[in-house]
Specification:
Elements lengths: L8 H14 L1 H12 L10 E5 L3 E6 L7 E6 L10 H16 L25 H20 L8 H9 L3 H11 L1 H20 L9 H13 L1 H22 L14 H7 L5 E3 L2 E4 L9 H7 L2 H15 L8 E4 L9 H9 L30 E4 L13 H6 L3 E5 L2 E5 L11 H8 L30 E5 L8 H6 L3 E5 L3 H13 L4 E4 L8 H6 L6 E4 L6 H10 L5 E7 L9 H9 L5 E10 L3 H20 L6 E14 L2 E11 L16
Helix pairs in contact: 1-2, 2-3, 5-6, 7-8, 8-9, 19-20
């Protein structure tokens, strides 16, 4: 049971997303005021965590990983619901202390106008802009000595310039320093009275564009900047209003404000549109949506889907992605896990999952906010039946030409893994390695020649909906995989069928049958999925080998985050029992500064296991050949894949293209 002051993960994610998306400049002001940072040291912050007593922010650094800063809340908040008012109070205190300009006649109740964009010259401003550019060109050609008697430029100015070429040379030189002084002064004044007062950080892209424009055209840029501020004031006044009413009929709920506050990004997983976290929670949207009757709200969502739909396949479902919670209801998950097989006690063994049971082991997207369309019934308490699967809503997408299918109400989908999927598809490319000068991410790895006589097998200990399973299947490998979530397994099965691969799901009473019978049955399906804990994988594969079934394991994938450490040694044992060489792909979240240190730790683990099993004279070898940086998981944290290459003898590495090129 959660404690009374527990912070809802979904609510926290929405708050972090909203602050980073809409209030980045305010976060910078807070760092300047409360932590005493300079504007440049606090530039472009990201709010990465928040609790009742502190805010944790990460600021990018040009020299290395982001710098973490903590703003203490004094006094701490009494409850999570106080966060909105506390953030407003801190924002206003920082703005007032920094002297950030505010709008309206009552600065204490108005929000400051922060400029985040550059406006190009318009109309007569272009005339001035190009006139000054022409003068700069004149200075350049004169100082380059291109206007000399007898030259084309001399003859041109002698004929057309009042007073002739000599007068042209005198004028260009005479006004150079006055023009330079005037424009430098204008740029300084622009920065002092406008840019810094409206939150434009010195050195930022927007600051450079305004200052560069001012250096050329001077006061014309003042007028555009002032006009932009006035425009933002009008939008602010229209969007905020003076009455404070939340009624959708108030004047602030207008077309322009709705567009400004609407989500600008989305992802299509046919036939669903998935909006980013925090969508329709800012500006006038909450007031509008709370006032509409259900039929009008449904009509709004239908209009959005219609506008986004391609001509051939209409989109029918709309949802907001609120992230995958780290924890779920303990009793619900325990019921789901215990129903997977008679070996329910094994499902809680530390060998496979060292975390507490209430961790979201199944990665269920319980925070998904459905807006329109029938997403199917709620998840059953026990193992879902075929009727549950048939009643659920399923979506699909294609990555690297491979179809993947899942039920968004019950299963997560990580689109950021596309890079790692592509890498696996290219893993055994036969072309030569790139020259050493190139920073190659994909290292070609020819299939070892010391075991070509046996069919190759891949093992995936965290199969999910087939994220990496399908990449191995596309390579022509047979895949044995393990997964706990029955919804993920059903998605994997449907995806395999869509890609025209044979697949067999082993679950329920079948799990008590001899493993060789299960794997060789069903006409030897290319993909075999065990709906059970991966703690049983090592023993099942040993049972297969004991029966005489040839299993030359080329790849073992351990793709669980934040770490798949509990499966490192089972993966080693599974591959080591093969006759041929192979690779382990071990996934972990690692701080950017700790990647090399973690690589050494992983290498040390395998060195210790090898010595423990073979002694000092063993010929086998395990080398962390490569560390792939897949995607950033959080500021300063990377989703890494450690490729461990396992050989049977020292000569084995010569059979692999690029074996001596760890990266």
């Amino acid at each position: 049971m959660a404690s009374p002051d527990a912070i809802p993960e979904a609510a926290k994610a929405r708050t972090l997303s909203h602050m980073n998306k809409e209030h980045s400049t305010d976060l910078q002001h807070m760092l300047q005021h409360f932590n005493g940072l300079s504007a440049s040291a606090a530039a472009n912050p990201a709010l990465v965590d928040m609790d009742l007593s502190s805010l944790t922010l990460a600021v990018p650094s040009a020299q290395g990983p982001p710098t973490t800063h903590v703003i203490k809340l004094s006094p701490p908040m009494a409850k999570w619901d106080d966060r909105r008012q506390r953030l407003i109070d801190m924002t206003m205190a920082a703005r007032e202390a920094l002297g950030v300009v505010t709008t309206g006649d009552h600065a204490d109740t108005s929000a400051p106008i922060v400029v985040r964009e550059y406006r190009r010259p318009v109309g007569v401003h272009w005339v001035v802009f190009f006139a000054v550019l022409h003068y700069i060109w004149c200075v350049a050609v004169v100082r380059a000595g291109l206007v000399q008697p007898g030259s084309v430029l001399w003859d041109f100015h002698e004929r057309f310039f009042p007073g002739g070429a000599a007068a042209f040379l005198w004028l260009v030189d005479a006004i150079f320093y006055p023009v330079l002084a005037i424009h430098l002064t204008e740029a300084w004044w622009h920065d002092r009275t406008r840019l810094s007062a409206h939150g434009v950080v010195r050195g930022s892209r927007v600051w450079c564009m305004w200052i560069g424009s001012c250096l050329i055209e001077g006061a014309m840029s003042f007028k555009r900047f002032d006009a932009l501020v006035e425009e933002l004031k009008e939008k602010r006044a229209a969007g905020r209003g003076d009455s404070g009413s939340d009624s959708a009929n108030d004047s602030e709920v207008n077309h322009q404000n709705l567009i400004v506050a609407a989500p600008k990004r989305w992802v299509v997983y046919e036939p669903m549109v998935l909006l980013p976290s925090g969508s329709f929670t800012t500006g006038p949207w909450p007031a509008l949506l709370s006032s509409l009757p259900p039929e009008q709200t449904a009509s709004l969502w239908k209009c959005i889907l219609h506008a986004l739909s391609p001509s051939k396949a209409p989109l029918t479902h709309l949802a907001v992605n609120e992230g995958i919670p780290l924890h779920v209801d303990e009793s619900h998950q325990a019921s789901s896990l215990s129903s997977l097989s008679p070996l329910s006690t094994a499902l809680q063994t530390p060998k496979s999952h060292p975390q507490h049971l209430d961790e979201n082991l199944l990665r269920s997207p319980s925070g998904l906010k459905t807006l329109h369309g029938d997403f199917g019934p709620s998840s059953p308490q026990a193992q879902p039946t075929q009727a549950d699967f048939d009643a659920a809503f399923w979506v699909s997408t294609k990555q690297n030409g491979i179809t993947q299918t899942w039920a968004p109400r019950f299963t997560m989908f990580s689109r950021g893994n596309v890079k790692e999927k592509a890498r696996l598809l290219s893993f055994h490319a036969t072309h030569p390695p790139p020259p050493p000068a190139q920073d190659a991410t994909l290292v070609p790895n020819a299939i070892p020649t010391n075991s070509h006589t046996r069919p190759k097998v891949a093992v995936d200990l965290y199969a999910g909906i087939g994220y990496f399973v399908f990449s191995y299947a596309r390579l022509g490998l047979r895949v044995l995989c393990w997964e706990l979530n029955p919804w993920s397994v059903e998605g994997l099965r449907r995806g395999a069928v869509a890609n025209k691969w044979t697949v067999r799901v082993i679950q329920g009473a079948e799990l008590s049958l001899p493993t060789p019978e299960l794997v060789t049955g069903g006409a030897g399906a290319q993909i075999v999925v065990f709906l059970e804990d991966n703690a049983l994988a090592e023993d099942r594969i040993a049972e297969l080998r004991a029966s005489g079934l040839p299993l030359d394991v080329l790849h073992v994938n351990c793709g669980f985050l934040p770490t798949s450490l509990p499966t490192f040694r089972p993966a080693w044992a599974i591959q080591r029992a093969s006759e041929g060489d192979g690779w382990l792909h071990l996934h972990e979240n690692v701080g950017v500064e700790d990647i090399e240190r973690r690589r050494g730790q992983v290498q040390g683990l395998f060195d210790g296991w090898r010595k423990e099993e073979e002694g000092d004279d063993g010929t086998g070898r395990a080398v962390v050949q490569h560390v792939e940086l897949v995607k950033t998981f959080a500021p300063g944290v990377w989703h890494c894949v450690f490729d461990v290459y396992i050989t049977r003898s020292s000569s084995g590495s010569s059979n692999r293209c690029g074996a001596g090129r760890p990266t």
